[in-house]
Amino acid sequence: MLFKYALKALTKYKLKTFLMFIASMVSIASIFLITAVSGGIISMYSAMLKTGGDIIVTQKDISDTFFSDVNRTFATKVAQVNGIKNVYAIIVGACPVNSIPICAVYGVGTNYYSHYKLTNGTYPNSKEVIIGSNIAKTLKNPTKILISGKEFKVSGVFESQIGFEQGGVVVPIDDGSLLFHKSASFLLVSLKQDMAFNTIKNNILDLNNSDIDVKTTQSFTENYNQFKIIRTSSYAVSFMAFLLGLIGISSMMSMIVNERKGEFGIMRAIGITQSRIILGLCIEVIILITVSFIVAWLTSEMILFILENIQKFQGYISGKISFEMLLGVFVSSILMGLLGAIFPAWMASKSDPAELIQKGAQ
Amino acid sequence: MIQARNLIHKYDFEYALNDVSIDINKGTFVALSGESGSGKSTMLSILSTLLKPSSGIVLLNGVEVNNIVNIDKFRRENIGFVFQFHHLIQHLTLRENVELAAYGEFKKDLDSIFEKLGILGIANKYPNEISGGQRQRAAIARAIINRPKIIFADEPTGNLDSKNSINIYEIFKSLCNEGSTIVVASHDIGLKDFVDKTIRIKDGKIE
Questions:
Q1: With a cut of 0.90, is the ipTM above it?
Q2: Domain residues for B184?
Q3: Which H or E element spans position A146?
Q4: Which residues of B touch chain A, with CB atoms under 8 Å apart?
Q5: Do A269 and B81 touch (CB under 8 A)?
Q6: Is residue B204 part of a domain?
Q7: What is the pTM of this model?
Q8: Which of A42, A134, A289, B15 is the most buried (most CB within 10 A)?
Q9: pLDDT digit string (tens) for A265-285?
Q10: Residue B103 near residue B146, CB atoms below 8 Å
Q11: How many domains, chain B?
């Protein structure tokens, strides 16, 4: 009965229900989008590191891989440590490419080329590059490109599941060194099976303890400063969206409750308990939030799809809504609705039935 | 049995009731009459537990109202209320309006009460689809669904023509004959033909 009553009340006050729906839907969609997009940035960069190796060797005490400089001759020494399968020296940088003001550029050694699946052409020699299919489309399949004003021949196009690579350029590591004035940003190390990380870490540190830092790629991505900044910003913006939704619901509910004061007064007069009145309003909000959540989810999926396919963004903006995120946002949304509704509902439950009689007597 | 002792109620500095005491026996049909502003609606509100008096006590079937912990539950189990303007919830059908008030085993009596009040055929209609008399009968159905011992009605025929008014009084009379105590606040002189007792209130006092 309460469910049916809640549905009827929602349809009766169409405009206010619609406004409350819009407020909560926009708020939930904002939470979805900011979480998915920031999560996408983190997962793209994490995936890039994790698929490349199990261990990452960076310059000691740097906050960002962009600022790290590791001498790549060190890679030869690391490769000789027992239990290590492969070592890849990689430069990560960003600079203008043709008309694109900022573009990811990777300098990699020949042993890392197979990581990029070519769809046409060949792997690059000196003064040549391979480019991701997204940037190839944006630049209309160029045969030559300018990276920071230096000309490179495009030797091939590759496909990658990672947006940052799809929209990026891969150059031989020697050319990368010239472009970014560093030997390597970091070394990615892949291990033979069942090797203990701590032993290998100590063996690598024994080679050069003063200038480098050794971490598993998993631990690196979990503690990476840039990711922490992105995560914290995303939580802050999501919290603001949550608050805006809460305020929207709370103010609309206050108006609805005020308009329906007589109705709640009648309920009190006919013996409906205060807790049942509060429960009824909470059910209304839960129904509304559930609908808003579904619409916000579908809208967010659509927006994420559009963002991912906008040429201008080169696939750098890519977000996925996972089951865990769905569950988390759903719980937050219900919480937002209930927090927004609880005070107006409590006020409603206090409606004075005697007022109705006084009005009638006038 | 309804007992009120030394009831005083003030709105700001004005006395709506001034030291009023009354006794209403179980199973009687009582009218509270008086002009607009005389204090009869205030009296009804206090007797029906909807309003707390400034001072004085009310006992309903021997229970002092001030000592009741769960007033909503007490009201639901003991009191039915009929308002002047029916106050049915507009977005619910008559059946849903009554269902909302019904609790426990009383839900099954809904059809028989509707039939008794002659509104079974319109039970699925909304309040704005029926006449004033039908609305007031639906309001009575809502008031009696939980078989309350006492029914209060505030100007229940205030918006009805004489034919519908008589019909409503007849319903109250038959409920009274079945053992309910009925207290109606009204200035309709036609009511005197149906009631066992009339209490006349003037300027907050019993005449």
A1: no
A2: 2-197
A3: strand A144-147
A4: 36-37, 40-42, 44-45, 48, 50-51, 70, 72-73, 75-77, 79-81, 83-85, 87, 89-92, 96, 99-101, 103, 142-143, 146, 154-155, 158
A5: yes
A6: no
A7: 0.77
A8: A289
A9: 888 888 888 888 899 999 999
A10: yes
A11: 1
